[in-house]
Design a protein that fits this description.
Shape: globular
Helix content: under 10%
Radius of gyration: 20 Å
Strand order of the largest sheet: 1-2-5-8-11-14-17-20-23-25
Order of helices and strands: HEHEEEEEHEEEEEEEEEEEEEEEEEEEHH
Strand content: 25-35%
Oligomer: single chain
Number of helices: 5
Length: 361
């Protein structure tokens, strides 16, 4: 995917109430034993604080302490501060919640600056796009709440690098709940993926912010972004141009549903596309899908909001709108497909989640 960058201001709305009392105070070491002995899904909370007042001083140390094979809910409660570290939740550690304990999602920040072309310290090559993620969640049941996840890779200072994609959050799991978070970067900010092409990966994001400029919501997950704000940023050189969604949906699956949300940002009018089809690796069997519905679109959105990618036509895939408003919205045309009322009735949040009800527990 293409590249480039600059920063933008963010004004989050009120924080949602946190789920107090949902976790019992058990030690991480005792978690696996308790869950096995009781036959029930135990829960525990561990604390992270940079100043040493928590059980761990880094987020990754807290994750590392969770037993392999864990399936019980573990809440990693992170005190306010900036944690400059990459964090990975492996597939063997299910139902992990990263939760900021401050009064605002701005108070707790996990940030790093790897990019696709960044060389690994061991000399084994570069990270690649998926490997550049600040937070990588590969375990089912992952949740993030009341915090910011950022990739602050400096594109302007690295224009000689090949591979400027820099992921803030990568999910490759099922039943992922992103609740009242900020996910911010430039190119390829939010990678909503699955463990494999054949594996279902459902994601529900609510009351959150996603910030970026090029293909910054992308991947093959079945994902709903609900009641959230998608903020468009200028590129590193101050220019306005970009793409919001780049789904790489497998045939027969649902892709991205953006509903009840707002698209805004300090960028030029008619400079951004809603999306384009990402046939990852040139895979013609994919059937990318994105629907924007009941969403307020700023004047930044082009009148022909979809475009082709890498030789694949968006018209051969599944892109549509329904009942959008705002200066960037438009009426039905060959360049702007709109769902009928009957079609829209089959593209609701419940259709995407398929029996899963996200909850902060």
């Amino acid at each position: 995917m293409a590249a480039n960058r600059r920063r933008s201001s963010l004004r989050p709305g009120p924080r949602r109430a946190l789920n107090a009392g949902a976790a019992a105070l058990l030690s991480v070491a005792a978690l696996q034993t308790f869950a096995t002995a009781s036959g029930a899904a135990a829960a525990t909370t561990v604390t992270v604080a940079k100043d040493g007042s928590g059980q761990y001083s880094t987020v990754q140390a807290a994750v590392d302490a969770i037993p392999a094979g864990n399936t019980a809910r573990v809440v990693v409660s992170i005190k306010p501060g900036t944690y400059r570290e990459p964090v990975k939740i492996p597939s063997t550690k299910q139902n992990v919640t990263l939760q900021g304990s401050g009064s605002s999602r701005n108070d707790t920040v996990i940030v790093y600056d790897n990019a696709s072309g960044t060389r690994k310290p061991d000399g084994s090559g570069t990270y690649g796009t998926s490997g550049s993620a600040t937070v990588a969640a590969e375990a089912n049941g992952f949740q993030a709440r009341n915090l910011t996840i950022s990739n602050d890779f400096d594109e302007a200072a690295n224009q000689n690098m090949s591979g400027l994609q820099a992921v803030a959050l990568r999910t490759a799991a099922d039943k992922v709940f992103l609740d009242s978070v900020i996910v911010t970067g430039d190119q390829d900010t939010l990678l909503l993926d699955t463990a494999s092409k054949a594996t279902l990966g459902r994601v529900y994001m609510k009351d959150s912010y996603v910030v970026g400029n090029v293909d910054f919501i992308f991947g093959r997950a079945t994902a709903v972004i609900d009641a959230s704000v998608i903020t468009l940023k200028k590129r590193w050189d101050g220019s306005s141009a970009g793409y919001i969604a780049a789904p790489s949906t497998a045939a027969g699956r649902k892709g991205f549903l953006i509903t009840g949300s707002t698209v805004n940002g300090d960028v030029s009018a008619s400079s951004f596309h809603l999306g384009r089809p990402w046939h990852a690796g040139g895979d013609a069997s994919l059937d990318p899908m994105a629907t924007f519905r009941d969403t307020t679109l700023s004047s930044a959105i082009r009148s022909a909001p979809w475009t082709d990618m890498s030789g694949f036509s968006w018209k051969d895939d599944r892109f549509a709108e329904f009942r959008n408003t705002g200066p960037g919205s438009g009426s039905a045309s060959s360049d702007r497909p709109q769902l009928s009322v009957a079609q829209a009735a089959e593209q609701e949040t419940a259709d995407w989640l398929a029996g899963w009800t996200p909850s902060a527990s």
